[in-house]
Specification:
- By secondary structure, the chain is an alpha/beta fold.
- It folds into 3 domains: about 35-110 and about 125-160, no CATH class; about 165-285 and about 310-360, Rossmann fold, CATH 3.40.50.300; about 370-435, no CATH class.
- It is built from 15 helices and 15 strands.
- The strands form 4 sheets. A 7-stranded mixed sheet has the order 10-9-12-13-14-11-15, with helices on one face.
- Helix 3 (about 50-60) crosses helix 4 (about 140-160) and helix 12 packs parallel to helix 14 (about 400-410).
- The longest helix has 23 residues, at about 140-160.
- The chain starts with a helix and ends with a helix.
- About 20% of the residues are buried.
- Keywords: ATP-binding, Hydrolase, Magnesium, Nucleotide-binding.
- Belongs to the AAA ATPase family. BCS1 subfamily.
- It catalyses: ATP + H2O = ADP + phosphate + H(+).
- One of its GO terms (molecular function) is ATP binding.
Amino acid sequence: MMLLRTAINDLIPHQIRSLIVSKLKAFFSDHQRNNQVSLQINQSWDGQTNKLFQAAQEYLPARISHSFKSLKIGKIPKHKNVVVAVDGTQEVVDHFQDIKLTWKLIEETSNKDSGRDFPKMHSFEKLSFKLTFEERHRDVVMSKYISHVLSTYEAMQAEQKTIKIHSIGGRSWRKSDLTHPASFDSLALDPEQKKDIIGDLDRFLRRKELYKKVGKPWKRGYLLYGPPGTGKSSLIAAMANHLKFDVYDLELSSVYSNSDLMRALSETSNRSIIVIEDIDCNREVHVRSTSKAPSDSDSDSDYDRKHLKVKTGRFTLSGLLNYMDGLWSSGGEERIIIFTTNHRERIDPALLRPGRMDMHIHLSFLGGKAFRILASTYLGIEGHHPLFEQIDGLLDKLQVTPAVVAEQLMRNEDPQVALEELVKFLKQMDKESLL
């Protein structure tokens, strides 16, 4: 090898040797590039935001290794933590089904003349991602990996989502952040009832394909009923926080016609909870006396509409029913509709049937099991306490709402003192009830 090397160096001029080496390098480099496929993902597409670009921005920081040398970081309002992003100086390597995929952020800066009158040049930054992988993996990347990036992004968005509450004002919705901290852990509900509600919500989320198969809109209706102060609003907030759904609070008193109702409801988004509170306060949905019972030939919907007063230009129960189970009900997906009332018996049965209000949730006065949750939440008492049995006995005799007991527990910071004062309060209530 030494003799051969000496012979080549002596017999072949330097210029020719350099030419041969460059040709060999180019050959192997071209061969390697021909086995690579590159996809460019621009920040915008036809003037609109490219969702795949947004997904890559959120997805890639979670794939950055500890050896990564260059990062962008920042603090965005309403984000709890510092946000991290990749820059254009390093590639990010991801692996999917034993496929190596390489991402690189491409940053281009272009200057634009603002016009003859204002010749000042403005700089615009164009961003895109370049995704590179081997040619033989093209089908898997296009059919599975891109979908994986998008679905991961959507899951991250749902987790980080700031839930909004919308209220109707005039002819438009006003929105603000839903800051209510209620969760199912803190709700003073019977544990079995709480388990049933969570199970029903989770089952609803899983059944998109079933709803599509049977030809039903992907929505579910709940009726929350019970005395004031039993936690209806807190339960709605807990459901919103559990599902990560926005809330639309619809005041029927601000709805003057069926067309107003349809317009307002058509502006609600998917993955949302539509709340109609105190439904019994609207006389259009009260029980109606009819002299004729439904005949066998009448369908439920026919009977509903024959015996409801239809007032032209006014909001009516039939308009609400059309949204809940008519053609208008298909105007959105993944919707929860919640009605609240203090008096279920006042509501027209046409509104209470399954398919409209699928699950009726009775929120009643405080019992012993639910009180344990209040004691844990407000006083930090876990397990048993000597005063619990006495309190349970008093709660069984009285009709006390969770709101009243919670207020009593907040009056003292010392758990022992708080429970002793609660016993005195309940005994006084019991004494007054006997008078």
